[in-house]
Amino acid sequence: MSEASAKPLDHVRASIVEARALIFDVDGTLAETEEAHREAFNAAFAEAGLDWRWDRALYKELLRVTGGKERIRAYDVSRNSASPQLSDPEIAELHQAKTKLYADLITNGGCSLRPGVQAVLAAARKRGQPLAIATTTSRGNIDALLTVALGKDWTQWFAAIVAGDEVRNKKPAPDVYLKVLSELNLPGSQCLAIEDSGNGLASASAAGIPVLISRSAYFSDDDFSGAAFTIDDFTLISDEPANNSRA
Ligand code: XBP
Ligand code: MG
Question: Helix 34-47 crosses helix 88-109 at what angle (to 10 degrees)?
């Protein structure tokens, strides 16, 4: 399905080129990472002796809560179990184990960038347009993903990188985007945020940044009526053929 639901693709391409910076979300936008996150959560639960298992349907619901630690807490509370809830240190330990398992999965198995992403990034670099990252996940997780996808010097692609553990409030709060804007020293209205979820859209919008949504596996049916543009696939706006887009 080739579609740009909000405006014609030429407008999307023009907005990308004209933006003073492109600010990318990571999970679901640069790559379809959530299945690796889900697998890592489940492996951490098993390692910790918990009989918790998050299937895809449950994980889709849980993804409404951004942040791994916050998601574990929300699930624990929702269980209404007679057994005591995990303490904050127990959740932190569980999440630390999950983060290591996730990095191992990504480093050993890899997780390709979504088709067309690398071409969009490379074209921006070629025209000297700053790129940035605003994500809920941790810097270590971005490092695992982008070291495989873009190489060990991946940080050189980005003028600003802000992770969820570096701000007070995670998405849908605007904190990560506001910190990126302050590091770029640019007004939000002149940048473009590239996101895949309703929470990401809310976060960037609250920071005053127009949003291009590229629908991902888990969030394709979110409400994107507040987005400037909605597309299904980055190959529609890059010159990269769909079958030649892997990092
Ligand atoms: C991504 C998230 C993250 C990941 C897991 O949201 O919500 O919590 O699912 O990462 P977004 P951590 O794409 O909107 O930034 O376990 O490291 O939190
Ligand atoms: Mg996302």
Answer: 130
Residue in 64, 23, 56, 17 with CA at minimum distance from that of residue 37: 56
The values of phi and psi at residue 222, to 5°, are: -65, 165
Q: For ligand 1, atom 6, which residue shows the shortest CA distance?
A: 136
* Half-sphere exposure in the Cβ direction for 235 (13 Å, CA): 12
Element spanning 122, H or E: helix 117-126
CA distances in angstroms from 92 to 44, 98, 136, 158, listed in the order given = 12, 10, 16, 29
Classified as helix, coil or strand, 242 is: helix
- For residue 58, the CA-to-ligand 2 centroid distance in Å is 17
For residue 104, the CA-to-ligand 1 centroid distance in Å is 17
Residues 132, 195: Cα–Cα separation, whole Å: 12
Kindly tell me the burial class for residue 159, based on how many C-beta atoms sit within 10 Å of its own C-beta (0-12, 13-18, 19 or more): middle
pLDDT tens-place string over residues 145-165: 999 999 999 999 999 999 999
The pair of three-digit structure tokens given for residue 81, joined into one six-digit string? 């179990």
Examine the pLDDT at 82 and tell me if it is beyond 80. Answer: no
Looking at residue 214, what DSSP letter applies?
Answer: E
Q: Work out the mean pLDDT of the chain and round it to a whole number.
A: 92
Q: Which of 136, 165, 167 to mutate to test the pocket of ligand 1 (most atoms within 8 A of CB)?
A: 136
Residue 7: the pLDDT is: 54
For residue 61 the two structure tokens come to 């619901």
